[in-house]
Amino acid sequence: SGSQAIKALREEQVQVVLINPNIATVQTSRGMADKVFFLPITPEYVEQVIRVEHPDGILLTFGGQTALNCGVELDRAGVLAKYGVKVLGTPIQSIMQTEDRKAFAASVEQIGERVAPSACAETVQQALDAAAVLGYPVMARAAFALGGLGSGFASTPEGLRALVTTALARSPQVIIDKSLKGWKEVEYEVVRDAFDNCVT
Question: Which ranges carry the ATP-grasp domain (predicted)?
Answer without folding.
Answer: 105-193
